[in-house]
Each structure stands twice: as C-alpha cells, then as structure tokens.
C-alpha cells in the first residue's frame, strides 16, 4: 500500500460523520457493528504498511549513519597516508608518492560516502515527515474506532432503555384497561343494592308488625264496645 494511498484512506475514514450515518441508517446498531469491523480491518492493514514505512526510514537512517562513520574512517586513513607520505618524502620520494596516492584513494572514498550520506538526508527528512503523519493518522483511526464503539454502546443502551420504557407503558395501559377502582365501584354498588334491599325488607317487616298491632287495638276497641253495650242492656237493679 503506497504511503499517499494510506494517508488518503486514513483521511477518508477519520472524516466519517458517525452521527449523520446513524441518522440515515435503517439499522444503526448493525451499521455501527459493520463500521467497527471495517475500521478494525483497516487499522490492521494500515499498521502493517506504517510499520513497513517506519522500517524503511530506520534502514535509511542506518545507511546514513554508516556512511558518515565510513566517511570518517576513510578520512582517518587519508590523513594517516598523507602523514606517512610527508614523513617519507625527504628520504624515499617513491614510497612517499605511493602513500600519497593511497591518501588520494582514501579521500575519494571519504567523499563518496559523504555524498552518499548527504543524498540520504533529504529522503530521510521527507520520510520522517510522512511517518509522523502516518502515526498521527493511526492515532486518529484508533480514536475514531473508540468513538464508534462508544456510539455503539450508547445506542444499545438507549435501545434497551427505550424497550424497558415501552414495557412499562404497556403495563400501565394494561392496568388502565382493567382499572381495579372500577371493579371496586361495581362491588360497592352491589353492596349498596344489598343494603337497600335489607333496609326495604326491614321497613316492610316493620310495616307488617305495625299492622298487626293496629289489628290488636281494633280488637281491644271492639271488646270495650261490646262490654259497654252489654252494660246498657243489663236490666236495672241487676247486679
């Protein structure tokens, strides 16, 4: 995966508007689960590519460091050969020339490695910048993944709460439909009717008893009448 395509992919994924996607999804929970799977897979793939980029950068840094060290070693050899040439010049010009030529070879090698290190530095600087962006992008992707997981957990929690509230509302509607107070009211009406019936029966019984006493009064009155009539009919002087 090329570095630019990695950065493009990271930018595309981290710009995803989760809230907008949730609002437009028919099944937000399933959509978030799929996004979490996609992000996890992309992070794994991107991590491999970023690791390779970091590895390449470290190799170039090693090459540059090694070139600098090797250039220094050849510089030391050139200095030693030049010093030997100066030492031999008065007594052995031919040998001095040989060491001077060795110094030239060493200097050429020193320059080659210095140029190698110099050529690597811009590439290392550029690669260091890219690796920094890739690391930041990876952190952003991991942050987005955590955001997805948080949204998913929040959504599931809200769904459970809504379901529980719906069950409570259904239970309340069920209670309303079979309102126990209405049953109590009907039971109270039944008792009142029974009480009224008993009161009516009591009143009826009382009326019957009064009638019986009235008939007794009539009998007593009739007896008084008869007694007085018998007294009137009694012959005078009769005892």
List the keywords.
single chain, 239 residues, mainly alpha, 2 domains
How would you explain this protein's 3D organization?
- With 239 residues, the protein is mainly α.
- The protein folds into 2 domains: 3-159, no CATH class; 181-231.
- It contains 5 helices and no strands.
- It has helices spanning 3-14, 18-24, 28-88, 93-177, 180-232.
- Helix 1 packs antiparallel against helix 3, helix 1 packs parallel to helix 4 and helix 3 packs antiparallel against helix 4 (93-177).
- It starts with a helix and ends in a 7-residue tail after the last helix.
- The model has no long low-confidence stretch (mean pLDDT 80).
Task: Summarize this structure briefly.
This protein is an all-alpha fold and 239 residues long. Helices cover 91% and strands 0% of the residues.
SSE topology sketch:
Layout: H1 3-14, H2 18-24, H3 28-88, H4 93-177, H5 180-232
Helix pairs in contact: 1-3, 1-4, 2-3, 3-4
Indicate the percent of residues in helices.
Answer: over 70%
Tell me how many strands there are. Answer: 0
Tally of structural domains: 2
Mean pLDDT: 80
